[in-house]
Amino acid sequence: MSDPNATDPIVRDEHGNATGVIRPTELESQTGTVNGTRNGVAQATPGAPNFCFLFGHTVPFDAATLVALYPSHAAFVAQFNQAADAIERAGFWLKPEADDAKKAAEASSIGGR
Length: 113
What we know:
single chain; mainly alpha; 4 helices; 2 strands
């Protein structure tokens, strides 16, 4: 999705999420586009009352996109669990963190119609 003529230096995947970084489970089992900017603006807003601008913003996928990506809840959980296992193997999470994340994915309603 990266356009060589664009001013955005970040290489992004087909959903607009950054590639070439440590991708947490939320980017390996995507449910939206996570942008590291505040409403598309790269710099902080002067006088902002808190640090929320550091987290950027997320645009959730519509229902049709979620169903296309995850035709069932089991499909979402399987992809999420693979991502959690990879993060644990890479040493960025301990087993209890990976297990907690997997429980949250299982408890979610993501996937299917």
